[in-house]
Structures are given as C-alpha cells and as structure tokens.
Write a structure and sequence with these properties.
heterodimer, A: 114 residues, alpha+beta, 57% helix, B: 237 residues, mainly alpha, three-stranded antiparallel β-sheet, two-stranded antiparallel ribbon, 6 helices, 5 strands
Amino acid sequence: MAKDPVLSGSALSLLILEALSLLGDARLRIARWVASVTDDALRVEEGSLYPALHRLERDGSIEAAWATTENNRQAKYYRLTRAGRRKLAAERDEWRRLADAMAKVVQARPERGA
Amino acid sequence: VSDRGEWRWGQPRSAFEDQERDVDAEIAFHLEARVEENLARGLSLEDARAEAEARFGRVAAIRHDLLGAARTSRSRRRWRDALLDFGRDVRLAARGLARRPAFHSGRGSHARPGDRRQHGGLQPRGRARAPAPAGIGTPDALARVWFVLPSLGSSSMGEGTAIIPHPYLLDLEHTAPAVASLAGVTRSTVHVAVPAPTIPDRGGCKRRWRLAASRPRSSCARASGGCPDRTTHSIRG
C-alpha cells in the first residue's frame, strides 16, 4: 500500500500561501482544497496547518486579525501580505524548477555504454 | 464573518493579549466549526467531535508547539523593540544635547584665557567631570559603542554601533530614562574606543571638532576667520 506523501515545511508553506491567495482566509477549507486539487494524492492534517500559519505570520508573509463570527465567537483570520505575495511568487518558481528537475531525474534512462 | 468592519489588521489586541488564550481560542474555534459542520451532515455529537479531533491531529502536541513558538517570538520582539528604543533614545539624546549650549569645546580660538573649560574639552557646564568608563578614554574622545544583544537559541538578536562623545554617554541616563537599563549593557560591552578624528583643516579652522550648537554660526565665522564647514563637522569613528 502506498504511503501518503508527507508535506515538508516549505511545501506546506507554499500550499498555505497558495490557498490564501486563491480562497481568502481558508483555514477550514485548506485541507479539503488540497485533497480536491490533488485528487486525494496529498492529505494535510488540519492541526499541522496552525504551526505553519504562525510561522508565516512571524516572517511577515501573512497577517492575522481577530474578528467576531456570525455566532458571536472570536476567530482569528489570516490574509496574505505584500511580502507574502512576493514569497509566493518566488516559491512557485522554486517548486517548478524543482519539479522539472525531479521529473528529469526519474525519467532518466541509462546512457549507452555507461 | 458577519461584520467585516471589526477586522483590525495589524492592531494590538486587548482581549486576546495572552498568548495561551490566543492559541486555545484558535484551536477551539477550528474544532467547534468542524463539529458544527459534522452535525449539519447528520453525525451525532459524539461522532462529530471524534471526527473533528481525528482530522485535527494531536491537539496537545500542536498546542504545545504553538505556545513554544509564540513565547520565542514574543521574546524576540521584546529584544528587537528594546534595541529600537535604545537607538531612538541615543538619537534623541544626542540631538537634544547638541542643541543645548551647555556643552562647549574648550579648544581652539573660542576658548578664553582662564576659562574653566579650556582644558577640559567637551564637558557639561557646571558639573564635575565624571570619570571616564573603562575603554572610553578621555572625555573629549569619541567612543564607538558596540552593543550586542544576547542571542536566543541559534539566532543573534541584533547588534549595532553608535558613535557618541563621552559626555553624551554620561548624560544618556539622565536625558533618556528608557536607556537606563540598557546603558549598563552598553557600558559593559564597549569594545572599541576611537580617539577624536582630526577634522581636515579648511579655511583656517584649527579645532578638532566641536558641537555645531555650541556657538552661533556667525561668531564662529568671525573668530576662526571663516571656517567653511563649522556647522558640518561630522562625528565619525
């Protein structure tokens, strides 16, 4: 049985930044969104989002604010900052390069005479 | 969110100042929202809670991680703020002292014979000269003060340099009370004492340097025979 791919810190950060840019504050939907866009290939434990969110908040990529919900509860909401958008763009490029490089590696065939 | 007008991005929170309450409230909000979703899907309350917790993961471990990170972050912020405050106080104190005519250079053509400031270089008027802290040198020396804040974990919390005349250093504690606690750190981490630089002799100005505010521009011009940069002597180490 294949194991679920494990998302590292940087992958999770990229995923959160991407989700925030596409869905707005999407904490409650990130896990499902990931499962949906990856055809269930990737699964995110919801709790693991929070350390990543706080890390991104500390480095200034996202900012948080408390607000009152419809049920009169206090909830913390997140959104991307300008620095976060720049980071997202840079990380996208980085991942594309990495993915291309890895694709070449796994598609490589033995050279003749090697 | 029912009322987006209540969003307060980047503003201090009073109700959720405490980090522990913040983390607990955040986790609770997530779990409760999931439970409500599950109830709406027709699950029993027990099943709804169990499913929400299963999807969230190890609540206690995550809470522990979040609190640890929050404490570290808060501590780092405190040091950074202290450093910024210190820098601001140094600038303010230096600016304030520069405007005060209480500091004079006893050297050069402005010094009158018999003036008690004549041999003292820069010193506060009417105050006994305090002994120079070790490493600073003579009172008319410029001290390069290198302050390094303690590091937390593997990261250095910051360092910087300030170049200030010795009387400024002595006066900092009186002028800027906020510095008092850091002044001790500063004095104990003085690494380099740089003697006063010789200012290029332009237009017959023989003074090594002096505070721009110590004399009016016109009197300097008259006395020195036209020092072109009498108000722009920079203080550099």
